[in-house]
Amino acid sequence: MTDRPFHSSHAETLAVSLGRPPREPDAPFNEPVHLASTFVAGGEREYGRYGNPSWAAFETVLGALEGGTCVSFASGIAAISAVLDLVPHGGTVIAPRHSYTGTIAQLRDREAAGRLRALLVDVTDTAAVAEACGDADLLWFESPTNPALEVADIPALVAAARAHGTMVAIDNTFATPLLQQPLALGADLAVHSATKYLAGHSDVLMGAVVAADASVAEQISGRRALSGAVPAPLESYLALRGLRTLPVRLERAQANARELARRLDGHPALEEVRYPGFGAIVSLVVRGGAEGADAFIDRVQLWIHATSLGGVESTLERRRRWPSEAPTIPEGLVRLSVGLEHVDDLADDLLAALG
Q1: I want to staple 13 with a disulfide (CB 3.0 to 4.6 A). Which of 8, 51, 75, 113 is the partner?
Q2: CA 139 – CA 153 distance, rounded (Å)
Q3: Domains, the chain, ranges and CATH?
């Protein structure tokens, strides 16, 4: 039996159909978990640090969804580190002041070592960010940002970076390739914590970088091999299994998030409800600062207090409990990662906890 590839541009079809073994009699539907540190000589892999069929299948699917060449990593922070390694010594990186704390920590660590200069900006100030691109080697940003949920003008920022020859990398973890495709908008790189929505079940640590240029992907793959930050076969298998259901999971989670933002808007116990209009993350600013937000979190019953996000279960967290969070984030800001439970139950739990 020979393969007859079906060509589709629909994300739902790509997520389900790609990254599978050849259709031969008695062949498995899914790429198995290849527990191998060493491969027979003469091929492209030879050693487990250079490749594995389990993570190659995941890369095939995510690369197709993002429209580029995917390189997977052991974690999201490893993927971020590999991108920052592309910046020349003494170069400048522009990043949002309200970025994922792991990204800021990476930038600060490299800056302290004299490796690069980090310029933190308000990503919603398009003119100021565009002007800063004139002296930058890399424009890195999230849209929406974590946890402020600010949305950047991606086409305008990419155009400004292009005019100055500045590389652009966008952390697409919150939006996923189903809601936003950075490479199609002109970015050079899309970065993911696959731990979150892509894997989607709170049981995997993994990351990925998708490059528009295959030669850049090769550089990033080389950094992965040198650092040893390779994904494990089992995690790759689980992440791909999660990726298969991303379209239906995200559709439900986003619908829940929109409805929760609507129901919570104007609640007297809240100073603000932040929702960018897409995705499944909502941020609430609870009255009473840290004390008020912590009391609210202590009273929820269905929602789980946890720092990660993007799973099938709904979680929440006061972000300023982490000393590394930006001081411009309100003390009472609680980030909600909206899951797949019934929206009435999620709303009832929040409203009861708010009082």
Answers
A1: 8
A2: 13
A3: 11-244 (3.40.640.10), 247-354 (3.90.1150.10)
- The torsion of the CA quartet 304, 305, 308, 309, rounded to 10 degrees, works out to 40
So which residues are the catalytic ones? 49, 100, 171, 196
Beta bridge partners of 273: 284
Give tens-digit pLDDT for 107-157: 999 999 999 999 999 999 999 999 999 989 999 999 999 999 999 999 999
pTM of the model: 0.96
149 vs 34: CA distance, rounded Å: 39
Q: What separation, in Å, do the N-terminal and C-terminal C-alpha atoms of the chain show?
A: 63
Q: Is 250 helix (H, G, I), strand (E, B) or coil?
A: helix
| Largest pairwise CA distance in the chain | 68
Q: What Å distances lie between residue 342 and 62, 254, 347, 348, 350, CA to CA? A: 29, 12, 9, 10, 13
**φ and ψ at 152, to 5 degrees?**
-90, 155
